[in-house]
Specification:
517 residues, alpha+beta, Immunoglobulin-like
């Protein structure tokens, strides 16, 4: 038992289990917090909102309170800026305070903000602290009417808030509603009255203002919705003031909750605010940095490969696929039992095929090996020493590649030009090794090893060339740790290879015929 506990295979198995758990945890937080995914070329919409404030100064010191969008889990702020000449800008949690000396000319101030995301906790903002309810200021005349409206609303469907909204929006409203809400067509006035009616039912409610994000949208009037507090779920629910539907609509960003205005101007008159919306698209990798910062994982992202320059990331995309290619070679050699020209020569051939294309590359490979073997056969008759002989083969391979490149360019033969991408030393080594096997073991064995190398290279090629697999191995590069332990575990395998099972099959049949086990 102790010997088994201390065995290499046992500890490698433990390491494999730990690596799988680590990879699973790492993939989980990358998907959840950094928004990585299993498919390449994913993009994230980024919305740029520009607020343009204009007003006339009154020759008094100016103070402007400009409320910022809600940087909650619904939308996250990517960046923001205030363009205001001659103003001092002070940033606070939910607003900007702009101050300036008295001005004479009409003022123009721009506030620009870029936001992203529209996924998490839509219309369900958690708030464990129950908000206070402000008593409605109904006089003795309006209070009985308000109570009568609450009674009439019970005939409608939905929760308490939806019942009120549907009562008010009836095509033929009750006379009591018309009396109580003569300006019911003004959605902002309707929202404020609803908050008072809900206060009578001990339901906290507030008005929210926002912008529906549409490409090229321009407006001077923000959209208005209603939020009411759900006592049981301890969360704020958002209601459409026209239909009573629960939830924040798609592409809606909240600019303010519960306030009376989006901007306050002291020292100016005739203020007006206009909003413009522009949509752009960023890659998921480009947004990962901001998502990590939002999830408080900025340090973790800083020491990741995704923080490197793009040129270095592109190089690493190929390096991160190497372990998977190595695993394929190990399985085909140690488990299947295919003999190849060297251990990782098929992998290098596969990478060359990625550059040349499969068919062109295979023809070019066969061309170099065929000509090289013919030249190597002639060199063997000269009885050269090993190092000079291999050096001569390398030089001949270089000359072959040069001739093929020139002919391919002149006659527009893509097959001939593709040989430029094959590694010279590896090709020379394949030719030399095939020649030695040919001399010692015969042409059949030499051809078999070359063909096996090509088969493994083609299998590896189809794995490496797949963009989804390359994307997964780069984005979730912790999988390489799992591959590492799988490769080491395969190194402890001492059983029969698949090709050996076929090879020794006649012995098994003979044993069964004799009645022996």
């Amino acid at each position: 038992m102790l010997k088994k506990f201390l065995s290499v295979r046992f500890w490698l198995t433990v390491g494999l289990i730990c690596s799988v758990l680590f990879a699973g945890w790492s993939i989980y937080y990358k998907v959840k917090d950094w928004d990585f995914n299993l498919t390449p070329n994913q993009t994230t919409p980024v919305w740029a909102i520009e607020s343009h404030l204009t007003f006339k100064p009154t020759n008094k010191p100016i103070q402007i309170t400009l409320y910022r969008p809600d940087g909650s889990r619904i939308y996250k702020i990517l960046d923001e800026s205030v363009v205001a000449k001659n103003y001092t800008v002070r940033e606070e949690k939910d607003k900007f305070i702009l101050t300036a000396d008295p001005q004479k000319k009409d003022q123009s101030i721009y506030y620009r903000v870029s936001v992203y995301d529209n996924k998490e906790s839509r219309g369900k903002i958690k708030d464990t602290q129950v908000p206070t309810i402000k008593a409605p200021d109904f006089d003795d005349t309006l209070l009985p009417i308000a109570q009568q409206i609450l009674t009439l609303s019970e005939e409608q469907s939905g929760d308490s808030v939806q019942k009120l909204i549907r009562l008010i929006n009836q095509p033929m409203p009750d006379e009591t509603v018309i009396t109580f809400m003569p300006e019911r067509q003004d959605i902002r006035a309707t929202a404020h009255v609803l908050t008072k009616l809900l206060a009578l039912k001990q339901i906290p409610a507030r008005v929210i203002r926002g912008i529906t994000l549409e490409e090229g949208k321009k407006t001077s009037v923000p959209d208005v919705m209603l939020e009411a507090y759900d006592m049981q779920g301890k969360r704020w629910l958002t209601y459409d003031l026209q239909t009573g539907a629960i939830g924040i609509p798609e592409n809606f960003i909240v600019l303010q909750r519960g306030g009376k205005s989006l901007v306050d101007v002291a020292g100016g008159v005739d203020s007006a605010m206009k909003y413009s919306v522009l949509k752009s698209v960023n890659s998921s990798f480009g947004m990962a940095k901001y998502r990590a910062k939002s999830a408080r994982q900025e340090n973790l992202f800083t020491y990741s490969i995704y923080n490197l320059p793009i040129s270095q990331q592109n190089a690493l995309k190929w390096l991160t696929i190497f372990p998977l290619a190595i695993l394929i070679v190990v399985v085909l050699r140690n488990v299947v039992g295919l003999k190849t020209m060297g251990t990782f020569t098929p992998m290098l051939i596969a990478l060359a095929l990625v550059q040349t294309g499969l068919i062109s590359g295979l023809i070019g490979f066969g061309l170099i090996v065929g000509i090289g073997l013919a030249i190597r056969t002639g060199l063997s008759k000269l009885n050269l020493l090993l190092v000079p002989r291999i050096s001569a083969v390398v030089i001949f391979v270089i000359l072959i590649i040069q001739v093929c490149a020139v002919l391919g360019y002149v006659y527009d033969w893509r097959v001939a030009t593709s040989v430029l991408f094959f590694p010279i030393i590896i090709m020379a080594w394949i030719i030399e090794r095939a020649s030695i096997i040919w001399e010692e073991e015969g042409f059949k064995n030499a051809a078999k090893e070359v063909i096996n190398s090509v088969i493994v290279a083609v299998i590896t090629y189809f794995i490496v060339v797949n963009p989804t697999i390359r994307h997964i191995m780069f984005v979730f590069n912790e999988l390489n740790v799992v591959i590492l332990f799988i490769v080491m575990l395969l190194g402890t395998y001492t059983g029969y290879r698949l090709t050996e099972l076929k090879r020794f099959a006649p012995l098994v049949k003979k044993t069964d015929t004799n009645g022996r086990k």
